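User: I'm curious whether this sequence folds into something compact or stays loose and floppy. Could you predict its structure so I can see for myself?
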Amino acid sequence: MGFGRTSSEAIPGSAPVFRQKTLDDLAAMIPAETFNDIIGRTLDMMGQAVSTLGTSALDDHGQRIEFHKMIAIAGNVGLEELSTLSRSMEARLIAGEVIEPLEMDSYLVKANQGIESIRSYIGANGG
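Assistant: Here's the prediction. I'll summarize afterward.
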């Protein structure tokens, strides 16, 4: 299905930076159907976390939970910059800081761009 490319370059124009090699390596290890299922579920989990974080009624504890989810999820699919940003946001909340609405909006834009970069990868590779 074309998932076995070995390029480690980021998809041009994607933000946050997407390490394509992460998904290439995963795709090389498992059947295409399994890969597509895993990535589909991952995109669903990321979408749910982004949607939850976009809820203004979410308290700091709820935000920490969603940022914590995004640390692992984003890192597992090659969105290392988003994973690092998620870790930073979680740490700030743990330290008692407040995430301002404009900061949250910026984070959500980056998260959605990351989701779209994964979708573009899948679309470009026959998934």
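Summary: The two ends are 7 Å apart (CA to CA). The helical segments are 20-29, 32-53, 60-76, 80-94, 101-124.
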